[in-house]
Design the sequence.
């Protein structure tokens, strides 16, 4: 059964219907977002099991707290804990230098992020402040947390600057993109029996186990395989299976004319952006910078993929075409061309970190401008909601 989740929807009378001056959203996107409804199907096993905890937790949140603020706090908790962990081991291959308590902090922080990510919608329903901006803000923060968690996980298991680390990152960001690709085509988010909540708990357990046993355990072998491979190998195989399932669902077509997407566009139109950035990631991966600074590399290219995912989410919410080219696609092309002309035009240790910094600034700038556009379009605030203590007293009575 397809349930329409009203957590991201507010009465249409609160929205502006006139043309708005926007930073990055087109008029068509602004108009489409006003009429967006969030739809979801299914729940995973642990999502269902954890509902009593989520329901209790949201009741502890004051009514004046905006749902987007809850989402943002969760993202910051996740970001800070993983950056602390990685700061001790930026090469992701030196056991014994990360204080064991930081692995506990990272695991607990992921649990807090998961909890806050699950109650922001509940808070929106409680306060009557659900909007399309909330959906975009939620999923946008999720796209950022994907690569933040992955870099923390790779540092935990001492994966190092290896091809394994690179492809784990590619698979992780691609799975999240494919999920929203399916959403773009079908018009709803599909949760499976085993989904992101279960994956997050697997990471939590890995980090807690590392805090107890020490990070050197991942170099131990069992039946000729390192514990690192035994832990992450099956997880990545399952992620590839999930991508195949998403692709099969996408290939079935959407509700548009002749099986087109919910936006009445081609079902394969979102392929271009993700294929382009994965190819670009591979070009930059072959630089000398990745071998020396794998954690920073993953964080940088993760920002580029997160921006493209946010663009796809906007296209879905506004029922518009997916933009095929983005400035983040140009950076690896410039790098490749320069190396074809002369590898010494600019050193990798200069070009690549500047490129990664650009990816970060560009992602933040895009997200900020989109939020400002939606704030203007929907006539709402991002981190504040209408609040009346008297109304809260009436509800409590």
Sequence:
């Amino acid at each position: 059964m397809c349930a329409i989740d009203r957590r991201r929807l507010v009465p249409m009378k609160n929205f502006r219907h006139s043309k708005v001056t926007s930073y990055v959203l087109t008029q068509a996107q602004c108009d489409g977002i006003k009429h967006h409804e969030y739809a979801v199907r299914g729940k995973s096993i642990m999502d269902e099991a954890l509902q009593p905890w989520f329901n209790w937790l949201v009741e502890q949140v004051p009514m004046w707290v905006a749902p987007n603020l809850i989402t943002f706090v969760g993202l910051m908790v996740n970001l800070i804990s993983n950056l602390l962990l990685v700061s001790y081991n930026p090469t992701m291959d030196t056991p014994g230098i990360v204080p064991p308590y930081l692995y506990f902090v990272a695991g607990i922080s992921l649990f807090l992020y998961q909890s806050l990510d699950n109650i922001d919608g509940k808070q929106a329903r409680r306060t009557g402040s659900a909007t399309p901006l909330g959906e975009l803000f939620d999923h946008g923060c999720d796209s950022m947390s994907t690569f933040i968690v992955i870099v923390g996980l790779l540092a935990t298991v001492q994966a190092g600057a290896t091809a394994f680390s690179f492809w784990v990152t590619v698979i992780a960001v691609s799975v999240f993109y494919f999920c929203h690709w399916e959403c773009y085509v079908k018009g709803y988010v599909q949760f499976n029996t085993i989904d992101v909540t279960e994956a997050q708990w697997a990471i939590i357990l890995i980090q807690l186990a590392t805090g107890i046993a020490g990070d050197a355990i991942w170099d131990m072998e069992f039946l000729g395989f390192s514990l690192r491979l035994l832990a992450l190998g099956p997880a990545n195989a399952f992620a590839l299976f999930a991508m195949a399932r998403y692709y099969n669902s996408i290939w079935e077509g959407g509700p548009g004319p002749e099986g087109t997407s919910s936006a009445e566009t081609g079902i394969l139109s979102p392929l271009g952006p993700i294929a382009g950035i994965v190819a670009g990631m591979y070009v930059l991966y072959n630089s000398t910078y990745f071998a020396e600074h794998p954690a920073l590399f993953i964080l940088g290219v993760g920002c580029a993929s997160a921006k493209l995912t946010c663009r796809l989410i906007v296209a879905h919410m506004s029922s518009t075409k997916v933009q095929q080219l983005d400035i983040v696609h140009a950076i690896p092309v410039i790098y490749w061309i320069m190396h074809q002309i002369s590898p010494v035009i600019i050193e990798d240790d200069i070009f690549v970190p500047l490129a990664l910094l650009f990816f970060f600034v560009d992602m933040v700038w895009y997200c900020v401008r989109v939020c400002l556009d939606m704030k203007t379009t929907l006539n709402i605030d991002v981190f504040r909601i209408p609040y009346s203590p008297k109304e809260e007293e009436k509800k409590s009575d």
